Give the backbone structure.
Amino acid sequence: MSEEIRILVELSRADLECSRLSGRTESIPRELDKHEAELMVHGRALEVLELHAEDLRRDRRGFEREVESTKTRRRELELQQSRIKNNAEFQAMSHEVEDLRRRVAEIEDQALASMQEEEQVQTEIRRLQDLCAQEERRLGGVRERLNEELASYRQDLEASRQRRDGLVSQLDPQLRSRYERIRRSKGDMAVVGIVQGSCTGCGYHLPAQRVLELQRAERIIACEGCGRLLVWIGE
Ligand SMILES: [Zn+2]
């Protein structure tokens, strides 16, 4: 293998490594964001429940005040009633007192229902708080692991970039720009091998003469199908 071809092969591998590593350094932050977003969903659900619990507490306090004021009103009526001598008036007031007694029972039922709902909501709040705390701990571990991975990928990427820059600088400028042009247009490997006489980049079947030339590594040959640079790396 000529020196130039060896460099091309190595460069192509370094570029592949660079794109693998840079893909990873881009996907890790996205992965982290996804985890944070999941945690936020639980946090928001918790906020909604806490607001609901607050509403229920306010309702319950309202019911309690209403029970007290209705009871006071009833006691006042009872007092007035005790002073009434007229039978018809006494009866009318009895109805009113009875209505207030029913009203108190009704509000007390509502207050009880509201309290029961509040207890259920509180249970759900505690469950979500536990879940959030658990998720927060889990995410803490994940965050640490992913950040370590990210730092190591970034380091490897930097090393690979330096390696590829070193290789590129050893290429003849004309070959270098040809290489870069192919890599840009193909978006992946600019240098490919052949398998059973065909280009591994596009499948183009090479004439036997070309295969021989490749084996002898006399010169750099571009695939007639895709334009990638072909190298002989054994079949
Ligand atoms: Zn090809």
Q: What stands out?
A: Residues 41 and 132 are 10 Å apart (CA to CA).
